[in-house]
Design brief:
- There is one protein chain.
- The chain is mainly alpha-helical.
- It folds into 2 domains: 9-136, no CATH class; 140-289, no CATH class.
- It has 10 helices and 3 strands.
- The chain has helices at 9-43, 50-64, 74-94, 97-116, 118-123, 125-133, 139-163, 191-208, 212-243, 251-289; strands at 169-171, 174-177, 180-183.
- The protein has a 3-stranded antiparallel sheet with strand order 1-2-3, with helices on one face.
- 32% of the residues are buried.
- Residues 1-5 have low confidence and may be disordered.
């Protein structure tokens, strides 16, 4: 039976004042980056995975609950909060959106430590990491990653087309077919699917796997899966354009093809998680028997 709270109503109100003030200050300081982040989640396809990661992270934290032995770490929490506020203000002055948004995640991490302690923050490591992954990468990094991925997808697609006896010539990220050109744009670089698959690998590793080496292996495996599936997508587009209809390379059919192949890559990451889990089982039994 839960213990009854015999404190006076005024005492209960006083106890909640710090929480209310903290929540109000958090909203005041981080309302702008939060609104901009939510806008990008809704309107930017490159950031759309945040619409899933944010509620999942909140649900995972709620499901994990609070530790009975939690102890507030006021000093460390305050240091992290001050650092988050300083980063937030500096990022605002420098107009650096990514840093401004990450300061919000750091502030949330600091609040957990301030009120509940380090052990609770470690218990909630997965929701906190997912919150960080929900923040879109800065444009500079996305541009630097997109071009190599475009070239890699073009090379793989052209090689597969040659393997299927399709006459093809590759120039950078442009695939020349008889009477047709396929231009592997930045949107077709696979960066979007790579970001989503890395987030999925973190989620699956945190939920299904217990050993850090297995979690890291799953995370690393998501990278070649994303690159391979994107190369297959370029190949299928060229194959269908050459043998079926040039309209297959654009519009609804092209978009549908991309979604179907993303589901394939999604399934491969889930399958890899299941296999790694099966590999872990004997070690888990040995640990339980020891």
């Amino acid at each position: 039976m839960a213990a009854l709270d015999h404190s006076k109503p005024s005492e209960r109100v006083v106890r909640h004042i710090p929480v209310v003030l903290t929540a109000g200050l958090f909203v005041l300081l981080f309302a702008k980056p939060a609104v901009l982040l939510a806008r990008d989640w809704w309107h930017d396809p490159e950031a759309g995975h945040g619409l899933l990661l944010f509620p999942v992270s909140i649900w995972l934290a709620w499901k994990s609950g609070l530790l009975a032995e939690r102890r507030p770490s006021v000093v460390l929490g305050a240091i992290l909060l001050l650092a988050a506020v300083a980063i937030r203000v500096t990022a605002e002055l420098a107009a650096e959106l990514y840093t401004m948004r990450m300061s919000m995640v750091l502030a949330a991490f600091g609040l957990v430590i301030f009120f509940f302690g380090i052990k609770q923050a470690l218990r909630w490591w997965l929701p906190i990491v997912l919150l960080g992954l929900s923040v879109p990468l800065p444009e500079l990094i996305k541009s630097a990653l997109a071009l190599p991925l475009q070239f890699k997808a073009s090379q793989m697609g052209a090689a597969l087309l040659e393997w299927r006896n399709v006459p093809v010539r590759l120039t950078g990220n442009v695939i020349q077919l008889p009477g047709r050109q396929l231009f592997v744009t930045e949107a077709c670089s696979g960066l979007r699917s790579l970001t989503a698959l890395l987030s999925l690998a973190v989620l699956m590793g945190g939920l299904w796997l217990t050993r850090p080496v297995m979690r890291l292996a799953l995370l690393l495996l998501a990278v070649p899966i994303a690159i391979l599936i994107n190369g297959v997508r370029v190949f299928l587009t060229g194959f269908l354009v050459y043998y079926v209809d040039p309209a297959m390379g654009e519009g609804f059919m092209h978009l549908t093809e991309g979604w179907l192949l993303f589901l394939v890559s999604f399934a491969l990451v889930v399958l890899a998680s299941w296999l790694f889990r099966a590999i872990e089982r004997p070690f888990l039994r040995e640990t339980a028997d020891a």
